[in-house]
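Researcher: Please translate sequence to structure tokens.
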Amino acid sequence: MALIARIPKVLVSFLLIAAIVNLLVGVFLRYVMVPVTDWLDLDPIPFTWVEEVGEMLLAYLTLIGAAIGVRERAHFTLHVLNLTPRGRLLVDRIHFTLVAIVGLLVAWFGVRLCILNSTLTTPGLEINLAVLYGSAVIGGVLLAIYAISMIVAPSRLGADPLH
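Model: Translation complete:
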């Protein structure tokens, strides 16, 4: 079970590395290869795919990372009320219930976007746009799962006084 719980973190790490490599390839192609091909009077190397790949990587990285942030309690919180542990547990459960509802809404509308755009492709690589909008489905489902796990496991909810 611990191995399954690590999959989103490993995936986000891979996506971050891939986004950095993609960015470096784009910079290299634009600022090194374009002048070289111009100087040698060769056909330019197309690099429009870099933007599309970067957009998809960023979408998945953001939505999966947001879900991980919920599970790790890494998102910003502001404590203006001095609540008892029981009151804080109640507020946390209400909070995570709302987060789970938002996650399910994101997933639902992500599925609808996937269906709606399933016949469209990106202009450069001609990748189905449902792949891009699938990030909302995966991120929303993970967000809901992690929020529900924070409701079910209340011992973790009040463990860290800073969060």
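Researcher: Any highlights?
Model: The chain has a mean pLDDT of 89.
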